[in-house]
């Protein structure tokens, strides 16, 4: 089970929310890059994520060549993404303990506005993830 308290960001900051319960998850400035492993599942990699939990002992599975554990929202318990436990093949992006959240399960808030989080995109010619400009 998740923590008994939840961290909330200042509403003047731009940040991501769980689309199911509006739990605060990550600041937009902590969005690192878009990532699409060989499986075709895409998500956003964040430098820091809050109000989520991972039960590594519960269920490990493969996401392409990598071993991952599910990442859940602390408030509503919905599956939001994955934490990379083991990275087997050389991958320019994937690294151990990296957290990837599915952008389709997030919303973006800035002030009083809440919008759908932008679906990550990769360069169509090279299939290389696009790093977010800050």
From TrEMBL:
Checking InterPro entries in the record gives: Yippee, Yippee/Mis18/Cereblon, Yippee_fam
List residues traversing the bilayer.
Answer: none
Q: Which residues form the Yippee domain?
A: 14-110
Example of a GO MF term: metal ion binding
Q: Which residues form a coiled coil?
A: none
Keywords, A to Z, come to:
Metal-binding, Zinc
Family membership: Belongs to the yippee family.
Show the PANTHER family listed in the entry.
PROTEIN YIPPEE-LIKE CG15309-RELATED
- Return the protein name: Protein yippee-like
């Amino acid at each position: 089970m998740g923590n008994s308290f939840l961290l909330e960001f200042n509403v003047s900051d731009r940040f991501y929310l769980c689309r199911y319960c509006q739990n605060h998850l990550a600041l937009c400035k902590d969005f690192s890059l878009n990532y699409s492993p060989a499986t075709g599942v895409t998500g956003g990699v964040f430098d820091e994520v809050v109000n989520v939990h991972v039960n590594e002992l519960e269920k490990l599975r493969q996401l392409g060549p990598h071993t991952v554990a599910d990442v859940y929202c602390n408030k509503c318990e919905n599956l939001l993404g994955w934490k990379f436990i083991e990275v087997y093949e050389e991958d320019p992006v994937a690294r151990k303990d990296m957290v990837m959240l599915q952008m389709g399960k997030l919303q973006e808030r800035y002030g009083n506005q809440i919008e759908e989080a932008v679906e990550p995109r990769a360069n169509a010619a090279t299939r290389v993830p696009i790093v977010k400009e800050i």
